[in-house]
């Protein structure tokens, strides 16, 4: 398998990679899929999914449905971590921890991971009040008091979405000012139910089953805020650091793709959270994966001319 030149290698088997693999198989292209953890590993950790059409339930149950469909399509999975990729004139050389593979095309669907923010006592409330996604979890806090921690545009955009759902939103900015366009900051300030706390640090959290109160240190004072949800925006890191092509990344380190999910490098495609997409969700990752598969099929046709 290692010396053969594959038609396509998919790196990362989350919703984007899995969808692409299913579509490619149905287009008679057998991709080699490389995954370091397990199929749909991120989905497996989501306690409740309510916004993927046709399914409401535990992420692990959806992950199992995805896995079954991969098995039913006889898609081969190689469990390993990709460490780097090179390209010669024609093909890609994909290096894993324990082997090297060659392919005419590569699809990167390696996802993202959040930068850590340690909240004292907060480990207890992961998935029980602490969230990083307003679209995923916002509706759980309808008419409740919540807090958002962050200092950049993402934190404001997510807060504007949450402010229309929740009762009171405490926006805790660790800096003296928010690094975001002034129109966004003004829009947040104009919301009657938003209270902004500058130079705030979360120093503690309390609750029995889920989060109920946080302590925020601000200059010389420490205040207690009663909240049922805490949304953390610490930024995220791209998992595709194995790509040695600086021209494929934008200034926030997401992979630049066009509407066909092609990157600026011929034969290199990307889909899902790892790209410059405006929304990072399961349904959008699946849609991206399907488009990428179709584009890869077209690309491989040009290689055969
Ligand atoms: C806590 C939480 C809750 C969420 N809730 C929802 C929700 O309710 N609804 C919703 O629609 N979305 C939700 N999301 C977002 C959703 O999980 C993502 O948008 C989706 O998983 C993105 O799919 P993906 O295929 O792009 O990436 P991922 O699912 O992140 O998959 C990437 C895969 O690549 C693998 N990988 C990474 N690097 C390498 C490497 N070097 N070599 C080999 N393999 C590699 C990883 O192990 C992983 O399996 C949630 C996310 C989080 C974190």
Detail the topology: elements first, then pairings:
Layout: E1 5-11, H1 15-26, E2 32-35, H2 41-44, E3 49-52, E4 55-57, H3 59-72, E5 76-79, E6 82-87, E7 92-96, E8 99-108, E9 112-114, E10 130-131, H4 134-137, E11 146-149, H5 153-163, E12 169-173, H6 182-189, E13 194-198, E14 200-206, E15 213-218, E16 221-226, E17 229-232, E18 236-238, E19 268-270, H7 282-304
Parallel strand pairs: 1-2, 1-8, 2-5, 8-19, 10-17, 11-12, 11-17, 12-13
Antiparallel strand pairs: 3-4, 6-7, 7-8, 9-18, 14-15, 15-16
Helix pairs in contact: 1-3, 1-7, 5-6
Bound molecules: flavin-adenine dinucleotide.
Mean pLDDT: 93
Ions, cofactors, ligands: which are bound?
flavin-adenine dinucleotide
How many helices? 7
CATH architecture of the largest domain: 3-Layer(bba) Sandwich
Biggest sheet overview: 7 strands, mixed
The CATH superfamily of the largest domain turns out to be FAD/NAD(P)-binding domain
Strand content: 25-35%
The figure for the number of domains is: 2
Features:
305 residues; alpha/beta; FAD/NAD(P)-binding domain; seven-stranded mixed sheet; five-stranded parallel sheet; elongated; binds flavin-adenine dinucleotide
